[in-house]
Amino acid sequence: MHEMSIVQGLIAIVKEEMDKSGAARLRSVSVKIGEMSGILPDALKTCFEIITAGNEMNGAELNIDIAPLMGYCKKCNKEFKVIGYNFSCVECHSSDIDIISGREMNIVEIEVD
Ligand SMILES: [Zn+2]
Prior knowledge:
The chain has a single domain, classed as hypothetical protein PF0899 fold (2-Layer Sandwich), CATH 3.30.2320. The mean pLDDT is 94. The longest helix has 19 residues. The strands form two sheets. Strands 2-1-6 form a three-stranded mixed β-sheet, covered by helices on one side. Strands 4-3-5 form a three-stranded antiparallel β-sheet, with no helix packed on it. The protein is an alpha+beta fold.
């Protein structure tokens, strides 16, 4: 399960932030994951619970937001939402496109006490 290593990376960042601000308890973490990042939200939650159990992050909430897959057409300069993995421009149907978002994972917010 590659979600485990993703959560470990996430926790490392959260821990660094907590140390920096001298926070004692983690309340919640909000992340945004791309539709095509290959990350399964349920697996991510499960891994998060396993890793945070028993440490200062115990009981923290993980909020997950899904970022849609967005494409950019190099032919007509249009940005569009890729639906149903149809990788061609909605406007001119060119397949000469770039994926501009939907494959990433970002931390949006960290809430601590
Ligand atoms: Zn186009």
